Structure formats: structure tokens, C-alpha cells
Amino acid sequence: MKPQTPRQQLIYDYLRQKQTAQSAYDILDEFRSHGFRAPSQIYRVLNKLLEYGLVHKVESLNGYIACKQQHEIGKSTVAICNNCGLVKEIPTPDFVDDFENYNGWDGFTPHELAVEVKGRCSLCN
């Protein structure tokens, strides 16, 4: 799927250019001149982009990155550099599928799985 509105496209293009996770407030500061006035406007756009599978939320950083790999919506794996803040989407390891097939959930159905791996990138090593 692709962005459906000009605002979605604007924010998606912005995130595609960034190497670090961007918070809703970072995005708001960048696009006030485009008519964005409140964080809720940014969150609405980000939620749609999440729904379309075009962005990922990096939970530990409370930020967002553009999705750059083909994968199933609701699954993401990112590597985060603790030194420079670089966030890179990486291929989802096979063990993630084991979570979906796990029989011990006792009626629980997982809908989303995000794996965040922290360390140092090659530029910071």
C-alpha cells in the first residue's frame, strides 16, 4: 500500500530520508509550516502509515522509521545503535514465526511483534 493523502506522503517521505527514529514532536516541528499545529495531527497520520505497513514504531525510542523492507504487516526487527542513534530495519529472523505458531498462548492471539536489537553500528565500532 502507499500513502493515501498528501500529508501522509509528506511525512512518509520525511521518514524515508532519516537514519534515526523521529518522534511525533520532531515531525511536528519540521512541518508546522505545512499546517500541522498539534501532535494529534501527526499521530493520526502516523497511525495510518502504521496501518498500511509503511512505518514502524521503535518502542524503546518512542519514535518512527520508514519501512524499507517487504514483510508481513505487524512484524518488524530493527537494529539500534546506542552511540549515534542510527536505526536500521533488518530482516526478521525465523524465530519470530515461532511466536505465531506457539501453542501455549491459552487463547491469546498475537497481532504484532517488534524485535529491537541494541548495540553499536559499524560506523561507531
Topology:
Elements lengths: L5 H12 L6 H8 L7 H13 L3 E4 L4 E4 L8 E7 L5 E3 L5 H7 L11 E7 L6
Parallel strand pairs: 3-5
Antiparallel strand pairs: 1-2, 3-4
Give a structural overview.
With 125 residues, the chain is an alpha+beta fold. It has two domains: 61 residues, Arc Repressor Mutant, subunit A (Orthogonal Bundle); 45 residues, Ferric-uptake regulator, C-terminal dimerisarion domain (Dna Ligase, domain 1). It contains four helices and five strands. The protein has a three-stranded mixed sheet, with no helix packed on it. A two-stranded antiparallel sheet has the order 1-2. Strand 3 and strand 4 form a beta hairpin. Helix 1 packs across helix 3 and helix 2 packs across helix 3. The longest helix is centred in the middle third of the chain and has 13 residues.
- Whole-number mean pLDDT: 90
Termini Cα gap: 37 Å
Major sheet strand order: 4-3-5
Please describe the biggest sheet, giving its number of strands, its sense, and whether it closes into a barrel.
3 strands, mixed
Helix-strand sequence: HHHEEEEHE
Number of domains: 2
Structural class from helices and strands?
A: alpha+beta
CATH class division of the largest domain: Mainly Alpha
E-strand count: 5
Shape category: globular
CATH topology grouping of the largest domain: Arc Repressor Mutant, subunit A
Report the sheet-strand fraction.
Answer: 15-25%
Q: In the CATH hierarchy, what is the superfamily of the largest domain? A: Winged helix-like DNA-binding domain superfamily/Winged helix DNA-binding domain
**Which CATH architecture of the largest domain would you pick?**
Orthogonal Bundle
| Radius of gyration, in angstroms, nearest whole number | 16 Å
